[in-house]
Design brief:
The protein is mainly alpha-helical and 890 residues long. It has 40 helices and eight strands. It folds into three domains: 220 residues, no CATH class; 203 residues, TIM Barrel, CATH 3.20.20; 220 residues, no CATH class. An eight-stranded parallel barrel has the order 1-2-3-4-5-6-7-8, surrounded by ten helices. The protein is globular and about 85 Å long.
């Protein structure tokens, strides 16, 4: 096949872009940003770089659109023909392009959300809290619906799992570009403001191109804490109360803001960053203390600035808005504690009592942050008491809109975040506890504990310190990885007692079992039934109103038995645990260890919530948010608000009788289908992963080993064993490696065989319509397969010299793809989800370019007798680029 002329190439690219049906605004943004990158590449000083990038881009688009072997070989030949230096530059160029395309796509999402905002005719009423409340009220009555709304909890937990492949410097640059792109769109067409915005974007794109895409070294746990704080500072602090406000506006109508809100805070933020030490030796008790201190510093700064801003604007004269007696009494107390400041503030606010009070409150928040014991608030409840005195005084004086406007936002922020921001959670492996207890139980009196035992005990002292300093909500959940018996949970209380000694007071602990493997999920109800009779567990249940949290691991169960059997096992475990909790009069919260990638339980959270078994949600939903998912869902305020609103709506609706009955009936009606799929998929999965030599083959046909060289996060990729043992390989690199190889095996393998075993196509189509769990599974697999590529996958598999395993994978991919298309309708994947299909198709040929460069590097590394630093760098650059293009890592 001949190389295209310039005119032919332009025509090909134009037809490809037109075929994706991209919205006009987004198309214009992509073209503009792409043109800026092209200009930067021309100006870079590397002769011919732009032309080489265009050659590979055109070739991969041609190979993607006509799918002929000749077109694909030509694209591969171009990638192979670059010098190593040019391949490096081309990989960086494509990675930059993906960052810009992702930005344009996010900008389009924000644009659509703003167009819909406040316009019911443009809203999708099925997934907002206000609409869910109305629907639920129609089923259960207004009073019950209101009670469930006020009791609802959405609890995202941010984790430092190493799945964000881009550097923080790159993320920061992209956020600056997002602001400039908005300025560009807001400016007059062709005017000076637009030209200025375009010039500044060109400067930013140039900086992005010149920024090293790879971290020079792994981040420390403290670095990871600070990275998460950026999300809080930039979006969450203001976005969460805005969600509450939107819901209240919708429910109260014209009266909103003029009377006390209906909505009570329903978001609680958790964090494992600085607390998760399972397999991460770098997370120490000292790090945990620092993580809590950093989070507190950020939230107190936010509250301090908000109180000062609101106080400065509360210029209400005492004659129009007379203070209540309680407000006057509060003034006297605050004045006595901070006399000089009170005198100065009174001078500047001579007849503005509410303003004076709020400015003194802001000073007390500052004192809390700086640890000024004489002036500081003891806890968030004392701050809330003062704020409500101001609020009540305003309402009594007839200034209800001042009472329930910006001041209410501040009240919501304190109620949501306290003085701690995020509820810090500790996680440790059950085997570590067992080892330390065995040492302590047999140690002779006066024996110094080992380094491991000392660190484990110090963690409990750190939790006690955090609770004392920042309040009981700041820490207290202790998660036990690989819980396999009630003794694994009781061990935590025994260790806490060892930590404080016979006369000390242990920290208040909610011990959370984490059931991860297939066998552990099945054993979970029996373990729970045993542990609730343990004296310390029973005492804690009594103290909390019989509240219990149970965590379910998606990633290890999927690696254990394959994605299909794992999904079915997780559903059965949730149903069994929920039934046990109801019988035992326990208020259950299931904590879902879901990941960003589909092989780790990823996918749309709101559809997953609505597919859960009856009573497994009951108004409470907690899940892990990690890696690229954190920035995708919470990096922009408008998108964060939409995500929270959607998930909260699903949480509310999950308890509707219609939803619970639908899920219960479907599970019963298709129980035989589930049983057949479970057995067939596991057999197929085991035929692959239990084959002799599979672990070494997996390491050869994917960049699994090399992923460990990428400075993604502080946590090691393995718990300690070599790649010869898949059991000890973490689920993150397992998924990451298959994703990089464009196989995505962890998200779909075994489904085609499972559906073939059922065989009844008409019944399976009905199941896709009627059975939410099945539909969610099929839709997630459709996305996973759409991001895979059979031709590129085959090239990776050929690196392993095991045709039997390679053919097994390719046959299952073909079979699964065929079944998914038949069940979802149409002639290709994602035809029933055109927006998602467009996003995948738009990226695919550009990801192909990076995959071809990665394959080139991987082949060279596999053939080399000694490590080749240049090829390793190219490989790692391509890993970062593919992650940006697919928007899934681990």
């Amino acid at each position: 096949m001949h190389e295209l002329t310039n005119t032919e190439a332009i025509d090909l690219v134009g037809r490809f872009e037109a075929g994706q049906e991209i919205p006009e605004h987004m198309r214009a943004n992509v073209r503009m940003l792409g043109a800026l990158l092209g200009r930067v590449l021309r100006e870079s000083g590397s002769a011919g770089l732009f032309d080489d990038v265009e050659r590979l881009r055109t070739a991969t688009i041609q190979a993607y659109t006509d799918e002929t072997p000749e077109a694909f070989e030509r694209a591969a030949a171009i990638a192979d023909g670059f010098t190593i230096e040019r391949a490096d530059e081309v990989a960086r160029a494509f990675t930059c392009y993906f960052h810009l395309v992702n930005l344009a796509e996010e900008h389009q999402r924000v644009r659509v959300l703003r167009e819909r905002d406040g316009r019911p005719d443009k809203e999708d009423a099925a997934d907002s809290v206000a609409a869910a409340f109305m629907t639920l009220a129609a089923e259960v009555g207004d009073d019950t619906a209101l009670r469930r709304l006020r009791e609802m909890r959405f609890h995202p937990v941010f984790t430092a799992h190493p799945t964000e492949a881009r550097r923080r410097a790159v993320s920061t640059s992209i956020r600056r570009l997002a602001t400039l792109l908005q300025e560009y769109d807001d400016s007059r067409q062709g005017g000076a403001d637009q030209r200025r915005a375009e010039r500044r974007m060109l400067e930013e794109v140039d900086g992005l191109w010149r920024t090293a895409p790879l971290r020079p070294e792994k981040p420390s746990p403290t670095d990871e804490v600070r990275a998460i704080m950026a999300v809080f500072d930039d979006t969450l602090f203001t976005a969460v109360p805005h969600v509450y406000r939107r819901v209240d506006d919708a429910l109260q109508g014209p009266a909103a803001g003029a009377r006390a809100p209906i909505v009570q805070p329903f978001v609680r933020v958790g964090s494992w960053v600085g607390g998760d030490r399972d397999g991460n030796p770098f997370v120490t008790a000292s790090v945990t203390r620092k993580a809590a201190a950093i989070a507190s510093e950020h939230v107190l700064l936010g509250l301090e600035h908000a109180a000062s801003r609101i106080g400065r604007g509360l210029t209400l004269d005492a004659t129009t808005t007379p203070p209540s007696d309680a407000l006057l009494a509060l003034w006297q107390r605050l004045k006595a504690a901070d006399e000089d400041a009170a005198t100065e503030i009174a001078k500047r606010s001579p007849n503005e009592p509410h303003r004076r009070i709020l400015l003194l409150i802001a000073r007390k928040i500052t004192a809390t942050r700086t640890r000024d014991a004489d002036l500081a608030y003891r806890d968030p409840e004392h701050l809330l008491t003062d704020l409500r005195v101001v609020q009540d005084s305003l309402a009594q004086a007839g200034a209800a809109r001042q009472a329930y406007g910006h001041l209410q936002q501040l009240v919501w922020q304190v109620e949501t975040y306290g003085f701690h921001l995020a509820e810090l959670e500790v996680r440790q492996h059950s085997a570590v506890h067992a080892k330390v207890l065995a040492e302590l139980d047999t140690a002779a009196p006066g024996t110094e504990p080992s380094e491991l035992a000392t660190e484990v005990l110090e963690v409990f002292r750190a939790v006690a310190f955090i609770q004392e300093r920042f309040g009981p909500r700041a820490a207290g959940r202790y998660i036990v990885s690989f819980t396999r018996s009630a003794e694994d949970l009781a061990a935590v209380h025994r260790l806490a007692r060892y930590a404080v000694g016979p006369d000390g007071t242990p920290p208040v602990l909610d011990v959370v079992p984490l059931f991860e493997t297939f066998a552990d999920l099945r054993a979970a109800p029996g373990i729970l039934a045993e542990i609730v009779d343990h004296p310390q567990f029973a005492a804690r249940l009594d103290a909390t109103g019989r509240r219990l949290e149970v965590m379910l691991g998606y990633s290890d169960s999927s690696k254990d038995v394959g994605p299909v059997a794992a999904n079915l096992a997780l559903y059965e475990a949730q149903a069994a645990i929920a039934a046990w909790a109801q019988e035992s009069r326990i208020e259950l919260t299931l904590f879902h260890g879901r990941g960003g990638a589909l092989g780790r339980g990823g996918g749309p959270a709101n559809s997953a919530v609505l597919a859960q078994p009856p009573h497994s949600v009951d108004g409470r939903f907690k899940l892990t948010e990690q890696g690229e998912v954190i920035f995708a869902r919470y990096g922009d305020s408008a998108i964060a608000m939409r995500h929270i609103d959607q998930v909260a709506a699903a949480i509310l609706m999950a308890s509707a009788p219609s939803i619970q009955n639908r899920n219960r009936d479907a599970a019963g009606r298709y129980a035989d289908v589930a049983a057949t799929m479970d057995t067939a998929s596991r057999d197929r999965f085991f035929a692959l992963v239990h084959s002799p030599g599979f672990a070494a083959w997996f390491a050869r046909v994917t960049p699994m080993e090399e992923v460990g060289l990428l400075a993604l996060g502080s946590r090691p990729a393995r718990r300690g064993l070599s790649v010869e043992s898949l059991e000890d390989l973490r689920a993150i690199p397992w998924v990451f490696a298959w994703t990089q190889a464009r196989i995505n095996l962890a998200g779909w393998f075994g489904l085609g065989t499972a559906l073939d075993a059922v065989g009844d196509e008409e019944r399976l189509i009905r199941a896709y319509s009627d059975w939410p769990l099945f539909r969610t599974m099929i839709d997630n697999v459709a996305m996973s397969l759409a991001k895979a590529d059979g031709r590129i996958a085959r090239r990776y598999l050929d690196l392993g010299d095991r045709e039997d395993l390679a053919q097994l994978v390719m046959d299952e991919m073909t079979l699964t793809r065929s079944w998914v298309i038949r069940l979802t309708g149409g002639t290709e994947l994602l035809e029933n989800k055109p927006v998602l299909q467009r996003a995948v198709k738009m990226r695919s040929p550009y990801v192909d370019a990076l995959s071809l460069l990665q394959l080139r590097a991987l082949r060279a590394l596999r053939a080399a007798e000694q490590p080749d630093v240049e090829q390793q760098r190219l490989l790692l650059l391509s890993v970062s680029g593919v992650a940006a293009g697919l928007q899934n890592t681990g």
